[in-house]
Amino acid sequence: MNRLETLSQTMAEELGQATPDEQRAAALAACEFAVPRAELQHARVEEALESLRMGRHRLSQRQRSGMEALVRRLDGEYFDLQEAAEKTRECADKCLRKFAQARAASAVLFAFGDDPYEASSESLYEAASAVEDKAALFDVVKSALR
User: What DSSP character marks residue 115?
Assistant: First the structure.
């Protein structure tokens, strides 16, 4: 069972029945849905999204290293905020926003996986973790599969 199946067995099945090109389009749609909703604005993310839009599914070593570093940094910032929030027993909007940003950046990075199904399912799972309205995300992805 992959992580997407834990959120939606139906979505995982639809993605599995799609062509590799449709799967790649679904990953892009998921990323383009999640990134602005997570308020993630970063040149590395924009560069990676542009590569996906142009049909490039590989990152250069520089791009991959940059995206991996960004995801690690955002995850670290989130964990720091979460730890501080646990001490005060509240997780502020800032903490939740950082979590969403880290997941959206991770969705973009996963979209570049070698296997189109795995890349799209992992990207979609991370995008779903970044947004509140998973049903709207799934609708956007389903449209990309058609």
Answer: S
